[in-house]
Amino acid sequence: MLAGTDWLLKRAFDLAVSALVIVAGLPLWLLVAVAIKITSRGPILYRDARIGLGEQEAVRTCAQLEAVFGLIEQLQSVDTRGVEPMTHPGEAGLRLRDDVADEPQRREEYQAVAPSVERGLYLVPRVIE
Questions:
Q1: Domain total for the chain?
Q2: Tens-place pLDDT, residues 11-45
Q3: Strand ranges (E), the chain
């Protein structure tokens, strides 16, 4: 930890070098700004859109959020022990088909025309040494 004069000298050196870097880099930043202005229609520095709420909208939005939070509290107070989870809010079954193999196994046919097969696996040339 620096103290006294050493700290003051280091601080002065840091400020001087920082100022020198800023001044030396200024022409580059000006060139970048000009290039942006020439090639773009927008501003040089990005400006984000600001959306504001009027007093009435803010009051109405707060009231709606409070109503939502009230509903959440009501839902959290319900005892759901013993209730099975559902995939659909109504009595609807899953529309997915059964997971069964309905196509014939044709591995032997495919491997008969493959360039190289060993123990039921396709052999390919090594691409990474």
A1: 1
A2: 999 999 999 999 999 999 999 999 988 998 888 88
A3: 117-118, 121-122
